[in-house]
């Protein structure tokens, strides 16, 4: 396999700063941030229907690897561990100041990724965004009613049949969730009750790196392409005034658009945009297809 140097290594960025010739995972401020730490107060609304509030935050870019064609499934376990440790470092650094730290990856041009090098983003905000706010409320309501953690109870039920389980190791489960609407959607869950990524022990980080490599290899093997997706981590909220978050369970979600081939994707339009999403294949069928795929990458002779 030929290796391509990342276009962000040893280059001058839009703000005039020069990136170093980095040799492993490297994080730097986003030159075009959607969130800023210093913003002016909005004007007073002319009508109650037009309310706005200040949204403060910061945005960073994390390059996974110095070679632009070495994506996560092609990285060594030790290199993926460096990415996980970098995620944790960002959470520990930004968490005390911001209420939410969103780690996410848009992989592939089809998912709006503007740069080909393997990277993710870290956005920290002074507020709890809509999706985690809904998850927080639902998990808390379940915890109050049942005195147990929603996603751990869900995991126990999934493990009774394993119809939707794709991969499992000593610390983690990768499954197609019962409610999945994207064709090969995946939820990645730790087996132990864990609130945030910073709570992972050494063994859990290692088993996370292993299951990520296997899962993303299966993704690439499905249509023999660098499989596009949007993914992200959700854990308990952070911030200077952290409340009791025992109802939370750390998890990652992968939302890939490809449906039948490397060029045929699912479109969330029309009825699905205006009314309700529909499934193109069942979660059980998607899990079965992924389970049957090799765990060795097709570029390395796995197919």
What does this structure look like?
The model has no long low-confidence stretch (mean pLDDT 92). 27% of the residues lie in helices and 17% in strands. It has a nine-stranded antiparallel sheet with strand order 1-2-4-3-8-9-7-6-5, sandwiched between helices. The protein has helices at residues 77-94, 130-146, 150-161, 202-223, 271-274, 283-291; strands at 26-29, 57-63, 100-107, 119-125, 165-168, 172-175, 186-190, 229-234, 251-255. The protein is built from six helices and nine strands. The protein is an alpha+beta fold and 303 residues long.
Question: Which helices and strands appear, and what pairs or packs with what?
Answer:
Blueprint: E1 26-29, E2 57-63, H1 77-94, E3 100-107, E4 119-125, H2 130-146, H3 150-161, E5 165-168, E6 172-175, E7 186-190, H4 202-223, E8 229-234, E9 251-255, H5 271-274, H6 283-291
Antiparallel strand pairs: 1-2, 2-4, 3-4, 3-8, 5-6, 6-7, 7-9, 8-9
GO molecular function, one term: UDP-glucose:hexose-1-phosphate uridylyltransferase activity
Cofactor: Zn(2+)
Organism: Oedothorax gibbosus
């Amino acid at each position: 396999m030929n290796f391509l140097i990342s276009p962000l290594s040893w280059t001058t960025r839009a703000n005039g700063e020069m990136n170093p010739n980095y040799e492993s995972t490297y994080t730097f401020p986003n030159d075009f941030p959607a969130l800023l730490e210093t913003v002016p107060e909005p004007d007073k609304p002319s009508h109650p229907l037009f309310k706005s509030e200040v949204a403060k935050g910061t945005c960073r870019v994390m390059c996974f690897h110095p070679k632009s064609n070495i994506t996560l499934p092609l990285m060594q376990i030790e290199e993926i561990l460096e990415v996980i440790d970098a995620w944790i470092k960002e959470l520990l650094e930004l968490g005390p100041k911001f209420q939410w730290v969103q780690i996410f990856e848009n992989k592939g041009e089809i998912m709006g990724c503007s740069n080909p090098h393997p990277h993710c983003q870290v956005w920290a905000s002074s507020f709890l965004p809509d999706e985690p706010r809904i998850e927080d409320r639902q998990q808390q309501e379940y915890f109050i009613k049942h005195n147990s953690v929603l996603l751990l109870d869900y995991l126990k039920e999934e493990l009774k049949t394993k119809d939707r389980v794709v991969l499992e190791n000593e610390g983690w489960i990768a499954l197609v969730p019962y409610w999945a609407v994207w064709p090969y959607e995946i939820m990645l869950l730790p087996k132990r009750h864990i609130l945030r990524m910073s709570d992972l022990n050494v063994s859990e980080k290692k088993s996370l790196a292993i299951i990520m490599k296997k899962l993303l290899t299966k993704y690439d093997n499905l249509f023999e392409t660098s499989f596009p997706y949007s993914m992200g981590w959700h854990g308990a909220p952070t911030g200077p005034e952290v409340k009791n978050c025992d109802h939370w369970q750390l998890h990652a979600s992968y939302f890939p658009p490809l449906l039948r081939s490397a060029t045929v994707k699912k479109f969330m339009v029309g009825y699905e945009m205006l009314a309700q999403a529909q499934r193109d294949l069942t979660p059980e069928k998607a899990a079965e297809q992924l389970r049957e795929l090799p765990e060795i990458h097709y570029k390395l002779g796995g197919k």
